[in-house]
Amino acid sequence: MTDDTLIFTDLSAATMAEGDVAYGLIEDAAIAVQDGAISWVGPQAHLPATYHALPRTSLNGRLVTPGLVDCHTHIVHGGNRATEFEMRLKGASYEEVARAGGGIVSTVSATRSASQADMVASALPRLDALLAEGVSVVEIKSGYGLDIETELRMLRAARALATERNVRVVTSFLGAHAVPAEYAGQAEAYIDTVCIPALRAAHAEGLVDAVDGFCEGIAFTPSQIARVFDVAQTLDLPVKLHTEQLSNLGGAKLAASYGALSADHIEYLDDAGVAAMAKAGTVAVVLPGAFYTLRETQVPPLDALRTHQVPIALATDCNPGSSPLTSLLLSMNMACTLFRMTPEEALAGVTRNAARALGLRDCGTIAPDTRADLAVWDVNHPAELSYRIGFNPLFSRIVKGVPCPR
Ligand SMILES: [Zn+2]
């Protein structure tokens, strides 16, 4: 026992432990924390004698979950698309929006003209909104620079956010997000002269935790994505993929063949894709915010994923175009209401399975030897986290065992 051992008592713990049923709920629980990691969790009556003399912090019956993990975001970007949103609702066509400089082109040009400090400043309110709901890990992608310098600057800004706030940031290189206007019709040339060199440079600077792409008719073909993934493999970087969002090009199967951490969106995923993901241990990341914003009707194949025991995660996909959403709690509610996920699946989707989608094994559950990143809630039952709409019952966030201000 060291002096900085902390004991939290009088709580109920949704441990989300692997293989457990019903949230792995422990009533009248206690959690011991040592050197920033959980050293013991269980019924308070069974707290080992070695802890008895140490000071305790009562949580007065509150629910404790693992700190939430938002495993798919684009929170670093320039500008926003509110005027485009308004134009479209006033009846403008996509062509008219594009002619007015809207669409991804507007985000790319706003991002290119932003300094690293600008990017950090504009991302902070989005990050703060996530943290206010108990998030302790955020994945952040590049992908709005689409030139070497801006892709690197986005990743540097993402990493810098972790020095501004008490949060763990995981970065994904998403150079294969879209073909920029200056390479229109030349996706292959873009991959060769921008995307792959940017990936190598970002990796050399230690800025890449995983390599992502967008496999879709409006983005890149499976064979173009494979060329980027081949480079990722030689750099020993894990991959993940935006795929099967609007059509089925077999991207999930391709990603699984590279042992991908996750395949994301996957509304149009077919049985072969599900089976390939199950075999590779690839996590399915569903993104109900984009589904909602785009008013999609094709729901991800939840039953097939359950049958094949593919772990399901969910995330905000916070981005300026298709999911300007900074609430993981609302994502949980949307996943339940729109996709018919259960509240237990939704909570696993933003804790244990989200951690897995990032390749992290030391968070996402409340278990010995994991980081003591916890969320404390003013609720009686974990289903309340998915049930309410636009309500935040967070009492406090605990990061590495230390309660921190919202
Ligand atoms: Zn995305």
Features:
406 residues; 8-stranded parallel β-sheet; 7-stranded mixed β-sheet; globular; Amidohydro-rel; iron; HutI; Metal-dep_hydrolase_composite; hydrolase
Give a written overview of the molecule.
The chain has 406 residues and is an alpha/beta fold. Helix content is 36%, strand content 22%. The protein contains 15 helices and 15 strands. The strands form 2 sheets. It has an 8-stranded parallel sheet. A 7-stranded mixed sheet has the order 3-2-1-4-13-14-15, with no helix packed on it. A hairpin with a 2-residue loop joins strand 2 (25-34) and strand 3. Helix 4 packs across helix 5 (148-164) and helix 12 packs across helix 13 (343-349). The longest helix is centred in the middle third of the chain and has 18 residues, at 187-204. The chain is globular. The relative contact order is 0.15. The protein binds zinc ion. Residues 72, 74, 242, 317, 319 line the site of zinc ion. It is an enzyme of class 3 (hydrolase). Keywords: Cytoplasm, Histidine metabolism, Hydrolase, Iron, Metal-binding, Zinc. Catalyzes the hydrolytic cleavage of the carbon-nitrogen bond in imidazolone-5-propanoate to yield N-formimidoyl-L-glutamate. It is the third step in the universal histidine degradation pathway. Residues 63-382 form the Amidohydrolase-related domain. Pfam families: Amidohydro_1.
